[in-house]
């Protein structure tokens, strides 16, 4: 099959890493894969995709998508009047861009499957309105249907056009479909795979990290509040540090709120702040997983957090905020890791202390990580993914 995967930029992040994994699955199965980057200036992750993938750039930001402004109908009283006007104004712009896209890249090409992988307004609209000529369409939701509906009704308008949807979790899905009975969507649940266990470990770097940081808590995340919440973890670490001063906290990642997080940590005083480290964006995250003592994920919202899945591969005990979707799907009811309340540093600190002080509990969750990771093995996900594609083909015939 000829398949095109469309992304809202390829900066370093969980969605992009998962996209690279799926591209590998498709390539290994013999499919011809094209990667479309709609924000060419965000390209750090392009090197992570299989070399056989054709990567093309087409500059198409979210602001050009009419459905981006659907949210205005909920926020402002005048929004219900402004939204139709904006849609009318942007419609000819999108028609022109579609023509340019087809002429520039795909005049003679037709794809068997076109995938909106980022699940943002621009890649969804790009796919829903077939900027690339394709037989079948597929949209990706990196979370639950209800969370997208809460963000904007514009997502529903695009999902209706695409019809075939993959969701990471089913939380709230039945309720959304019940109260929006006009929707007719083919939704399939599919976990994210990860090939991180196959990535090469730099043993010298692992030793260096252990020597530099000793026992340390790791959080791998973009700094993008309130989606990601480093502040609660910093507060929890401060509470933990009052009892145990031999543990460090290491953040790996970058993003718009990183400077704020660094400033917030400094306000905790030199004693605490000197044990909190911000490593920035790293491509060698396996070395950090391998050398860490535990992983803590502090988020207010999640889809299916890639970092938790990756930590399972390295048998790291995990503590995560129990945000509406994602962590509980992976960790169960404290079955494979410890959950704590969202934005509750006291509860998070209590879980960290439990994991740190109870050696048997720590060993228990290391073993449970080995058990749970089987469900996210590439072969397991690959079989389910191809069955979903076959379902799409049958419905389109």
From TrEMBL:
TM regions (residue ranges): 81-101, 138-159
UniProt keyword Iron-sulfur present: no
Keyword annotations of the record: Membrane, Transmembrane, Transmembrane helix
Tagged with keyword tRNA-binding: no
Glycosyl transferase family domain residues: 208-371
Domain of life: Bacteria
UniProt xrefs under Gene3D superfamilies: Glycogen Phosphorylase B
Name of the protein described by the UniProt record: Glycosyltransferase
């Amino acid at each position: 099959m000829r398949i095109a995967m469309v992304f809202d930029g390829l900066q370093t992040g969980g969605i992009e890493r998962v996209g690279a994994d799926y591209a590998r699955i498709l390539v290994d199965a013999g499919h011809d894969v094209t990667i479309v980057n709609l924000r060419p200036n965000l390209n750090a992750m392009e090197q992570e995709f299989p070399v056989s993938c054709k990567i093309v750039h087409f500059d198409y930001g979210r602001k050009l998508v009419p459905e981006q402004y659907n949210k205005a109908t909920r926020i402002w009283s005048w929004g219900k009047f402004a939204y139709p006007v904006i849609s009318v104004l942007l419609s000819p712009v999108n028609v022109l861009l579609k023509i340019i896209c087809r002429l520039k890249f795909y005049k003679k090409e037709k794809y068997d499957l076109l995938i909106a992988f980022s699940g943002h307004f621009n890649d969804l609209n790009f796919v829903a309105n077939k900027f690339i000529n394709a037989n079948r369409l597929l949209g990706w939701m990196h979370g639950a249907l209800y969370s997208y509906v809460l963000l904007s009704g514009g997502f529903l308008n695009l999902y209706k056009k695409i019809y075939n949807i993959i969701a990471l979790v089913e939380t709230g899905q039945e309720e959304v479909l019940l109260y929006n009975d006009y929707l007719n969507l083919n939704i399939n649940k599919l976990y994210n795979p990860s090939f991180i266990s196959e990535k090469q470990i730099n043993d010298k770097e692992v030793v260096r990290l252990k020597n530099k940081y000793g026992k340390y808590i790791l959080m791998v995340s973009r700094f993008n509040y309130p989606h990601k919440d480093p502040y609660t973890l910093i507060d929890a670490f401060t509470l933990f540090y009052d009892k145990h001063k031999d543990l460090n906290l290491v953040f790996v990642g970058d993003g718009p709120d990183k400077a704020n997080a660094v400033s917030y940590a400094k306000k905790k005083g030199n004693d605490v702040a000197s044990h909190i480290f911000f490593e920035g964006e790293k491509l060698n995250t396996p070395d950090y997983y391998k050398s860490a003592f535990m992983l803590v994920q502090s988020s207010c919202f999640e889809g299916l957090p890639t970092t938790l899945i990756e930590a399972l591969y390295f048998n790291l005990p995990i503590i995560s905020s129990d945000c509406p979707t994602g962590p509980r799907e992976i960790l169960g009811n404290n079955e494979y890791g410890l959950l704590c309340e969202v934005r509750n540093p006291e509860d998070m600190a209590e879980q960290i202390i439990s994991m740190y002080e109870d050696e048997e509990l720590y060993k228990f969750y290391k073993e449970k990580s080995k058990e749970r990771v089987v469900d996210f093995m590439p072969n397991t996900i690959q079989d389910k993914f191809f069955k979903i594609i076959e379902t799409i083909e049958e419905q389109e015939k």
